[in-house]
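Ticket #4471: structure output looks truncated?

Reporter: J.K.
Steps to reproduce: submitted the chain below (96 residues) through the standard prediction queue, then opened the result file.
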Amino acid sequence: MRKPNDMTLKDAISKMLSVYRLRGKFDETGVVAMWPEIMGTAIGNRTTQIYIAHKKLFVRIESSVIKNELLMVRTGIIQKLNERAGSEVITEIVFL
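Returned output as attached by the reporter:
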C-alpha cells in the first residue's frame, strides 16, 4: 500500500538532479555516452575524443573523410542527439 508522500524512483532521481542543479551535467554525460550508439560503430571507432563545453559538442575524429561527411549533416546530428536526450543539450558541434 502506497503512502501519500511516496514517489517512484524515477521521480525521486529527477527531483534530486533538479534540487542539486545536476540535470545539465547528467544530460551532457548521457549524450557523450550515446555518441557511438547513435552514430554507429564505424564513426564511434574513429572518434578519439569527445566532450561538451558551453553547449558545444567537441569531437575529434581521426579520419578526414568522415569528418567532412559529418560536417555536411551537422544539424541532423544535433537534432538527433537532443531528441534522444529529451532536452536541448547541444547547440553546436565542433569537429577537431
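Triage note (M.O.): checked the attachment and the full C-alpha cell line is present. Residues 61 and 88 are 23 Å apart (CA to CA).
Status: closed, working as intended.
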